[in-house]
Known about the structure:
Blueprint: H1 4-11, H2 21-30, H3 33-47, E1 52-56, E2 58-62, H4 90-102, E3 107-111, H5 120-133, E4 138-141, H6 144-154, H7 158-168, E5 172-173, H8 183-189, H9 196-208, E6 212-219, H10 225-244, E7 250-257, H11 264-271, H12 281-294, E8 300-302, H13 305-308, H14 310-316, E9 323-326, H15 346-354, E10 359-363, E11 369-372
Parallel strand pairs: 1-9, 1-10, 2-3, 3-4, 5-6, 6-7, 7-8
Antiparallel strand pairs: 10-11
Amino acid sequence: MTDWMTILETQLSTDPPILSVEDAEEIYLQAPLSELMYAASERRKMQVPGNIVTYMIDRNINYTNICTINCNFCSFYRSPGHDEGYTQTLDQISTRIHELEELGGSRILMQGGVNPSLPFEWYTGLLSELSTRHPSIALDCFSPIEIEGIAEVSGLSTIEVLSRLRESGMHGLPGGGAEMLVDSVRNGISPKKGSSENWIRVMGEAQSLGLTTSATNVFGFGENVRDRVEHMNKIRILQERSLSKDYPGFTSFISWPVMLENNAFGKLGSRRGATNLGAGSVEYLRHVSVSRLFMNNINHIQSSWPTMGLKVAQIALTAGADDIGSTMMEENVVSASGTTKTMASIAELEESILNCGFTPARRDSDYNILENLGEGEPHLEVR
């Protein structure tokens, strides 16, 4: 196996080779963090030229918390019939979007649980009405496991479901529910969620239809570094396949550590005295750095402030990330597991970017630049 120093030297060349799984594992485990971050930062300059760091004004809408998948790391879901279960109405969702429009937002990320009581017509009717009421807002909705749940209820194939939802106004399929695309890990944390191949298949179908997609990665379940790199590799392979067919592919890669508070996974790990669960700031920064070097065919790497905090997210901008995420406005899934800050103001994101020496630029979910703020002060007061 090549040593970490040689690997990083080749990655810093003007035409770096595609990083192998073995070499990625080597630098993840052995390279000093400062060297790893430097190489990732230099690669970011090659893939995303310029000094811009992007962000988005959007809102998370968790339309239902009723779910039958019962992931043991999820604190958000409620089983059917639970007193705390809910499903938002069209008007409730529309009101939330109107509040986003008042802030100049461009996208909602609407996801929930796998709720078997909702017929297919509920989803198509919702999207059709929302796209009529809010034509300027991109509707990035659901996740692969939700698409599978809708397919089961409707009797349609997943690609038929996606096609009908797209016709009803859906703009994109976010890459939620990927967690770890290694089945030995996946089966231990969410056995009802299905195989990694199911997630890959549904995301590939979405890309074939021209839907905007992103790739995600939750780590810290006790898996090893090879598992983490294998996850990245499966995403990279799908990206290569989709781009070769002129499909849009993934816009970005977003990773964060699992939250351990308020869920069965964290409580069980605590009782067993597990010390290899979750991930701290240093491990997170290593993960971001390796993802930038490994994902040669995904241009945008996003830092995760909701789970790591704005300070660590800022450091990640010097470790290969070129995007600081979004305002979110509302978030219920991660916050249910103990994260306290689930909304960032526009000014907070802009100031965080400026303080790192970058230029803030507001984008949409397709990474089109909507406003380049230049080198000035944040243009809105902290809300």
